[in-house]
Amino acid sequence: MTHTTIVPRDRKRGAHLRTALSLAAGYTPVLPLRAGKVPFGNCPACHNNACGGRPNMKVPGPCLCPRPCHAWAAATHDLTVITSPEWVAAWREAESVAYHPGGAGLTVVDLDNADAITWARGTLPATQTVPTTRGQHLIYQGTMPSANGVRPGVDIKSDKSYARWLGQGFGFTAPLPDAVRALIVKKSAPVRSVSVTAPVGNGACPHRTPVFLERGIAMAEQRIREATSGVHATVYRMFLTVLATHGRCGCLTQTHMERLFTVAQTKGESARHCADAWSNALTALGM
Q1: 117 and 90 in one domain?
Q2: Which domain holds residue 171?
Q3: Residue ranges in the chain whose pLDDT is less than 70
Q4: Domain endpoint, select from 99, 120, 150
Q5: E strands, the chain, in order
Q6: Domain with 136 in it: what CATH number?
Q7: Is residue 128 within 8 Å of residue 171, measured between CB atoms?
Q8: Are 89 and 137 within one domain?
Q9: Cα–Cα distance for residue pair 238/221, rounded to 1 Å
Q10: Which of 51, 58, 139, 213 is exposed most, by the fewest CB atoms within 10 A?
């Protein structure tokens, strides 16, 4: 007769904290993740980054909130912080451990399916490989900008991003190759190159006012972040709203799109779902 071992919830949470401490001891910045592989959202004091945000979050000033409530920017290898009461409370609720690859000097090539793995084996140099639920993480030594959907089933997680910790895997970590860096070269261009007639009104685009555009992006981020149900529909609706207002005048950039994709992924949307929703919104608007 076989016996199923049931791991008590507290023991599981304790294992997450032990894993985090082990990684932090090697100077790998860590953070707890909730169910659905998403980070803890802003606490009331930091809601919508009202606190000013963490450093490197494209908003001014550091946040002194002791909670791990700023996604990848909350990641730390400070053992005092990780074992503080606020973080211990988060570890008790956490479903998994994540780390900030860029903060550890690493880049993760996230291969989401068998086709992506086949492509990587024929294109990229061998390196440390970690099996995932549906594919693999290839770990390289070196950092670069993060980007989702660089090709079908392939995401890049490095600077300003997080990846789940799934163990050491196997193999040795190779230097970050130019072939991986080249995957995001085309991502520096605007989201979509659209040639349209200038809007009526002195021939100037009324949407190029930075405050107007920033307000629209921030509002869409907030609506997605606050969605408690129907997240997929909310993401599509916000993409559609942003594109309908700002998409025809060329003022949207890759940075704006990545901001929307990032907040959608904190709500559990995959990179593929984000790309599909964006593409569907473009089609619906005839763009």
Answers
A1: no
A2: 102-184
A3: 1-13, 55-61, 185-210, 229, 250, 287
A4: 99
A5: 30-34, 38-39, 96-99, 106-111, 128-131, 136-141, 147-151, 154-157, 163-164, 174-175
A6: 3.30.2250.10
A7: yes
A8: no
A9: 8
A10: 58
List, in order, residues 6 or more apart from 13 with CB less than 8 Å away: 91, 92, 93, 94
170 within some domain: yes
Distance CA 81, CA 203 (A): 54
Cα–Cα distance between 107 and 109 in angstroms, integer? 7
pTM for this model (two decimals)? 0.63
What digits encode the pLDDT tens for the residues 112-166? 999 999 999 999 999 999 999 889 999 999 999 888 888 889 999 999 899 999 9
With tokens 């294109």, the residue in question is: 123
Q: Could you tell me which of 210, 213, 242, 238 has the C-alpha nearest to residue 226? A: 238
Q: Domain total for the chain?
A: 3
Q: Are 141 and 173 in contact (CB under 8 A)?
A: yes
